[in-house]
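Morning - G4F inputs below, output right after.
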Amino acid sequence: MDGVRRTALITGITGQDGSHLASLLHDKGYRVFGLIRGQHNPRRADVERDLPFVELLEGDVTDPASLVRAVEDSQPDELYNFAAISHVGYSFKHPTLTMEVTGKGVLNVLEAIRLSGLSTKTRMYQASTSEMFGGVDYAVPTTGYTEESPFHPRSPYGVAKLYGHWIAKNYRESYGMFVVCGLLFNHEGERRGTEFVTRKITRAVARISLGLQDTVSLGVLWPKRDWGYAGDYVRGIWMMMQHDQPDDFVLATGTARSIEDFLTAAFARIGVEDWRPYVSFDPAQTRAAEVDNLFGDSSKAQEVLGWRREVDFDGLVTRMVAHDLDQQRTLNGLASPLPPEAHPPHPVQT
Ligand code: G4F
């Protein structure tokens, strides 16, 4: 830091990326504000407990006036827009709400910066996503999707994110605003919500191992995703915002693995070779359209920003299962037989 304390405003502070980024920015000496929704948000207490240094401002990305107030009150040097309905399956059930929050919410954030007269001061990060690439086979490059690949979203979530991506780029081009778009492939970890498949699996594996649960119900197991560690990706996001030019960057590992692969790796951590007896099919977890195969090429972020991931797939699965074993033991009053080396260090790496 240059001696002047920088200020950041994070929307989506209750989510995985908001949480990781708040920790990272706090460690770097930032003053951190978080936008929190609703009068009685049950997750407010979690943020106050886990991230006590975050100054909470009430507001909602669907409420433009509340955004203007939050931006004026915090005067951020950097604004990170993570607020979204981020569950792809949920977006099929609530497509209109998804467009309001995940799509139009981006426009509201951009306008709040502009109307507050902070277009030249505030840098903005827009959380774009690999879901925008979607699933057309002919478009899958052999080395993975890049910043130049065509988009073909396959869900209301993906379509809403694509609107957010283009309106962010439009404000960059039209008004010269410093708006960065990160095209992040799936990123997981101990702070991931249990509604997403990786954490649903690692939590279930821990509970099955401890005799707290017999099976886990999942949707289709063949889709492939490019799974990285959220702490690494949030560090990449911060690096994008420190670059001298606003730009688009892919963050990915470059390797696609199926949900079956993830199950094999997770169950292996508790000594189970054949996971099939523990997994049942739940049609409610399937989607009206599926994305078959997503993997990205992060060469640009590596070359331009010097970004590297530190946690590989095996390391990711190990730390998630170890964390969930620990957490389930604590929640259920069971003794911990884990040796110290099984406990991963603090998840955020700066
Ligand atoms: O874990 P998922 O829900 O993640 P998905 O759909 O890839 O989206 C995540 O990553 C995106 C980046 O590409 C983000 F933009 C997005 O916000 C989110 O973070 O599902 C992964 C795969 C899908 O193919 C899904 O059909 O797992 C399959 N799946 C199978 N059974 C399941 C389940 N997904 C969930 N959530 N729950 C299941 O029981």
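Note: Residues 197-223+256-293+315-342 form a domain with the UDP-galactose 4-epimerase; domain 1 fold (CATH 3.90.25.10).

O.
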